[in-house]
Amino acid sequence: MTVRNGDMLRLAPGAPTRIAEVPVGRLAVADGSLVSVQGPLMQARRRLMQHGTAMVSVALDADGMLAAPARVVLLGVVEDVDGARARAAEAAVDAAVGALPRRASAVEETVCETARVAVRRSLTQICSRRPLIEVQLLRVGERRAGKSAARAPALDKDVAQ
User: Fold this and answer.
1) Measuring CA to CA, which of 20, 116, 126, 135 is 20 to 30 A from 58?
2) Which pLDDT tens digit goes with each residue over 1-28?
3) pLDDT tens-digit readout, 108-149
């Protein structure tokens, strides 16, 4: 009998027999749980360690226009003591999102992808890293249906005081 990694054997009574196959692989401890080293959590952590991350904030008004300049934070991507590289990425985001047609700026996925690509292109010019890029889109001046709309008047009242 040939035993492979993952084979579960019954050794007694009688002759050894293969009774099941169990998952195999390297595991890591993350937040008190065992997770696969090849799983998405550990892959993301390795990528963050090697390439860093860029966080992008874009604020649009009710008409889909930029309500404020974009904000880009680079963590572990490049040495940016004076903030020039982040400002260059911010300018790229402002130009790309500002050039979107009004109909396209109404679609959250389109705006986020446009901002992500603008940051990626800006960073490609200055370094060879491919950081994880997270885009946060804020809509200013719109109210959404549901719980947040029900709380909006109270928030407006607090702001007015």
Assistant:
1) 126
2) 888 988 999 999 988 899 999 888 888 9
3) 999 999 999 999 999 998 888 889 999 999 998 855 554 443
Tell whether pTM > 0.85. Answer: no
Contacts of 153 (CB under 8 A, 6+ apart): none
What are the boundaries of each domain within the chain? 46-141
Calculate the alpha carbon distances from 152 to 58, 138, 144, 148, 156 in Å: 21, 15, 9, 6, 6
Overall CATH class of domain 46-141: alpha beta
Which tokens go with 95?
């130009």
**Strand pairing of 17-21 and 53-60?**
unpaired
Distance CA 88, CA 119 (A): 9
Give the C-alpha separation, 46 to 52, whole Å.
9
Those residues whose C-beta lies under 8 Å from the C-beta of residue 68, and which sit 6 or more positions away, are: 59
The closest of 37, 45, 133, 50 to 89, measured between CA atoms, is 133
What angle separates helix 108-126 from helix 84-98, to the nearest 10 degrees? 140
User: In whole angstroms, what is the distance from residue 123 CA to residue 105 CA?
Assistant: 23
**Cα–Cα distance for residue pair 92/87, rounded to 1 Å:** 9
